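Quick start: what a row looks like.
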Amino acid sequence: MTVGMLLTMLASGCRGSSVSPMPTLPPPTPTLPPNPHAPEATAVAFLDAWEQGDYETMYGLLSPSSRAAVDLETFAHRYQAALQTATVLTLTADLRAVLQEGTHAQATYQITWETALVGTLITETLMPLSLYGDRWGVEWSGNLIWPGLGDNNYFYMEYQIPARANIYDRNGLALATKGIIVTVGVVPGKIEDEAEVLSALTTLTGLPPEEVRARYAGRPADWWTPIADIPVEVSVDYADLFDIPGIEARQKEGRTYWGGGVAPHIVGWVAPIPAEEIETYRAQGYRGDEWVGVAGLEKWGEPYLAGRHGGTLYLMDPTGQIISVVARRDAVPSRPIYTTIDRELQARVQQILGDRRGAIVVMDVHTGAILAMASGPSFDPNVFVGPGSEPERFAILADPDRPLLNRATQGGYPCGSVFKIVTMAAALEAGGMTADTIFFCPGYWEGLGSAYRKTCWKADGHGSINLKDALTASCDVTFYAVGLALDGIDPNILPTFGRAFGLGVPTGLQEIPEFSGLMPDPEWKQAAYGEAWWPGDSVNLAIGQGYLLVTPLQVARMMAAVANGGTLYRPYVVARIGAGGDEYPEIVFQPEATGSLPVSPEHLQTIREALAGVTTSPIGTAAHRFVGMSIPVAGKTGTAQAPGAESLPHSWFAAYAPADQPEIAVVVMVENAGEGSTVAAPMVRQVVEAYYGLPLTPLPPGAQTTPTPIPTGP
């Protein structure tokens, strides 16, 4: 008999809050085996029922005297309490031998507990049985659960919980650290002068008096009601205000996020274990009242940041004295996470993005390391770590602009003319075209028939223009024609090249969630809409419109590959995991190449020259935004039509710098902001300037918003 009882069974049999209500009517009819010559049958049935968490059946197998001494509810609770305290995940109970002398017998069995906290526990114990009439019954005591428990002894688990480790940037500067949370609150019944209390709390929290009053109004007089979390420094500077009757402060260990939230979408935050996940965490040795990572690196890195709980399981007597140590396992040290993020650059990038709905990604083109990633609007993760921040949390959760959404990795958008990089590559590699293939742009195109007339962004047209210059000038008519030509060869050419450039497919980012995007193709359209692909779908895709959805991170990865000679790297945000003593050495994450662009070196160089012209050539769509720039930048504008007739297009600029010796890829996307050259391109210039420590060029009027302060911290 070795069938283990799983944790899910224990959840209904070991947890006091999960146990089904016990009968209050007369106890169940005994279910003793009828064979008076087989006490082992009773022992086997009893142990089988234990493995299944069937305490009612176990109770029915007790002798009449045992059932008279203990009721079913108490009996079940003894088992549940022991197993829960010992953090038992599975148990087996194996019958070893049965000795019988007349109307008495003794069964020997081995108990094996697999626990979450103290490892595997194995012991042998004895089960006395007596014959009553024609049935054998178990003479029960707590020793049948574990030797030494008896009638009144119990288990006690002493937890060893490592302090949560910090999260740092690439230079060892703190992003998330252990801190003290000071929550200032009110006990309404102790207030003597409400005006004085409101004035003091306004000083401490910055909240207006009416907001303070609203937070405790209607609460019971003797309840402490949290008002807000405040910095420790404020509580020290205004310590005298806590002498005012009715005002009380409480402290607890917490988590502090530097600068009011630098890279919050990457770092994440901690919170109490969600109720629906408590059993899962207990199975890992958690006590159940800890704070754990629920988003970002705090969640991904939980095994490192939290370490592993250790514990000592004691056998205690009724007076609370230790009888013996049943088992012990030491904790595993927590370990810090060092990210690829540059904290100072990240702060500047967040300031550049401001409160716009959009994203900025800065990536090392030679490794895939993410140096900065901002998503807007942003939020302060500190509001999630204190009990006094409910209104702030609600405001974040209710914000229609969805600040918790990481638009850099989870936002799916058409990328507009940025996709022309892919279209040009496909034309050169699979379309039989060259950089010098000539097109004519009168400002409109009727390649699908006059009923489907399409226009170029340049109303008077580009005239005669070759393919290379068409990318620099972002000539729509040229790329309509290229899209139609490629469709005529094979409708799957553009989708295949798009995926090979990393668009509409997962980047492989492992530490934080990402949206895979969508690269439409004939098979997808047939499955999704029951419709055949038609040439117009390829024409739309050629200019980054139609059904296409990509993330800013995918575009940054593509630009990094264009810049570095064609290697697609897996993006990553964790550089290393710190050591946890000699037993747990440092883990260093290395760059990982996951693919190559399907473009010859010669053709890729042609594309790079065209992108360099975007910021320098008289026909470049963003040349006027980079006048006087000391660091050469290559890039591509994108103005992507957004759903809704009244919606402004999404503004894109995808770039790398320096253009001649690339180091970083930079992508800016701003939702419903207008032309890529008007909004995103000037912001990319500022990001490059910030990276190289240059003064930021003021944004043009069309790109300006209310300035956002640079995040700062202690």
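That is the whole record. The mean pLDDT is 91. DSSP finds 24 helices and 27 strands in the chain.
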